[in-house]
Amino acid sequence: MDLEARLHADHGEELRLWLRMLTCTQLIEQRVRSRLREQFETTLPRFDLMAQLERVPQGLKMNELSRRLMVTGGNVTGITDQLEAEGMVQRVPVQGDRRALLIRLTSTGRKAFAEMAHQHEVWIAEALGGLSPREVDTLYTLLGKLKQHVARVQNESIGESA
Amino acid sequence: MDLEARLHADHGEELRLWLRMLTCTQLIEQRVRSRLREQFETTLPRFDLMAQLERVPQGLKMNELSRRLMVTGGNVTGITDQLEAEGMVQRVPVQGDRRALLIRLTSTGRKAFAEMAHQHEVWIAEALGGLSPREVDTLYTLLGKLKQHVARVQNESIGESA
DNA sequence: TATTGTTATACTCTATAACTATA
DNA sequence: TATAGTTATAGAGTATAACAATA
């Protein structure tokens, strides 16, 4: 294949895969969103924030949450405000750095999250129930490869633009 | 496995797969969104709407667009208004039903979309470039299975609630 | 009565940038 | 100066529901 042909190579397969991937995630995500709203009066970003905190009992700093949730700082402040007002999380001063705060689940938040997480797991198991354990595993592995590649490309772009 | 155990069966594998899938699509989608904004001053929903129209030269009715884009009617009206104001699409009366309108790409819109679609394909090819053709194919097949299953579950739920 | 599309409204999420307080 | 977090703002996307015109 000469250069010209390589430049204009057909990427139809990748595109079709991408569109199908997007359809799958959108279908599932919409289900999850509407059920979180109906059954728990909450939203996916709020659920995601609590999920991050649940893994780290001592809590996470705002900027760490921001990084993990892949959103900017102002948003984390807003969602944290809501959850704090509802008694789900608390802001805890960090000793040694009076600028920083640790956000952590309260025991109320931990209980509420446990219920939601259980239901969430059931919803996901339903949605992915059409796949055999073997297929789940294959998908997991291939998407792991994709994730690594995308993350690498991402960093290179940031490098370029910086 | 008895009923009790089945009820509380572990769905950790499915959950991990789902989170990984979500991470992959979010990473790629963010890239696409920011590039559409930077390079073409447009958004993903607008791009998606034009993509639907591009496949159907004679145009699509509002409710058909709404179904395909998986959003409610009012939103389609809004996005269509913007694109019409920019001369990308036009509303065409449907003979035989004076309530309905066909939305179709103008020649300006077709040209603009062709450019964007080409770039879009390159971005996607970049993002998925870490996978071999064989892996792309496997993913495509497995996600096809997933899509069918999710769509079926979706319809059953709608059936229940209706 | 049902359907097509529009309008009006309200809410969530988002990024950006200016700001305060600490380091 | 740089960093942690907040505030203010503006914009996009979304759903819901009331509405007009037509079937």
Order of helices and strands of chain A: HHHEHHEEHH
Query: So how many helices of chain A?
Result: 7
Shape of chain A: globular
Mean pLDDT of chain A: 90
* CATH superfamily label of the largest domain in chain A: Winged helix-like DNA-binding domain superfamily/Winged helix DNA-binding domain
Helix content of chain A: over 70%
Rg of chain A over CA atoms, rounded to whole Å, is 20 Å
Overview of the structural elements:
- 2 copies of one chain form a homodimer.
- Chain A contains 7 helices and 3 strands, in the order H-H-H-E-H-H-E-E-H-H.
- Chain A is mainly alpha-helical.
- Chain A folds into 2 domains: 3-130, Winged helix-like DNA-binding domain superfamily/Winged helix DNA-binding domain (Arc Repressor Mutant, subunit A), CATH 1.10.10.10; 131-162.
- A 3-stranded antiparallel β-sheet of chain A has the order 1-3-2.
- The longest helix of chain A has 29 residues, at 12-40.
- At the A-B interface, helix 2, helix 6 and helix 7 of A face helix 2, helix 6 and helix 7 of B.
- Chain A binds a DNA duplex (23 and 23 nucleotides) through helix 4, helix 5 and strand 3.
Blueprint (SSEs and pairs):
The structure is a homodimer of 162-residue chains.
Chain A: H1 3-7, H2 12-40, H3 44-54, E1 60-61, H4 62-69, H5 73-85, E2 89-94, E3 97-105, H6 107-127, H7 133-161
Antiparallel strand pairs in A: 1-3, 2-3
The first copy, chain A, binds a DNA duplex (23 and 23 nucleotides) through residues 43, 45, 61-63, 66, 71-79, 97-101.
